[in-house]
Write a structure and sequence with these properties.
This protein is α/β, with parallel strands linked by helices. The chain has a single domain, classed as Oxidized Rhodanese, domain 1 (3-Layer(aba) Sandwich). Helix content is about 40%, strand content about 15%. The chain has a five-stranded parallel sheet with strand order 1-7-5-2-4. The protein has a two-stranded antiparallel sheet with strand order 3-9. The longest helix has 20 residues. The protein is globular and about 70 Å long. The protein starts with a helix and ends in an 8-residue tail after the last strand.
Amino acid sequence: MKTKIALLCSFALCAILQAAEQRIPNRLIDYPGYLRIAQEAQAPREKRRLTEEQFLSLAADPQTIILDARSESKYKLRHIKGAINLPFTEFTQATLSKAIPGKDSRILIYCNNNFLGSPVAFAAKAAPASLNISTYVTLTSYGYTNIYELGPLIDVKKTRLVFDGEEVSPRN
């Protein structure tokens, strides 16, 4: 009896795997397009990764948008002062257009993997899953051309960046 059940499960698994190998069309999902844009964005992204000092300098311009793509709950705990929050899961043409005035607006991005010393607000992700990578590629996909990224890993207690949020002490 166990052999028959195992054999039936094997046949069912084979059928599922064969179905998964078939292309299932969906015009709203384009993995090859994502890979192409990610590849094209790689070199410009590397050139636009900023030191803390460079980030501070560009952030001082009032026309610059500092975009925090983390969840609203993490943003509320701690974020760079002056940053706007648009969670990555809410990126659409409409929400991005509302948050960012133009496709050529200067946008500074940062993520969880830029900061140490705040393990709840800035919970580290696996390095290949860093939100900076997805955010940069997605903004590029939507046609934004002036994106810069905070590059280093910074201790929140030693940075010159100013934070705001529920987790931040009144003296910061």
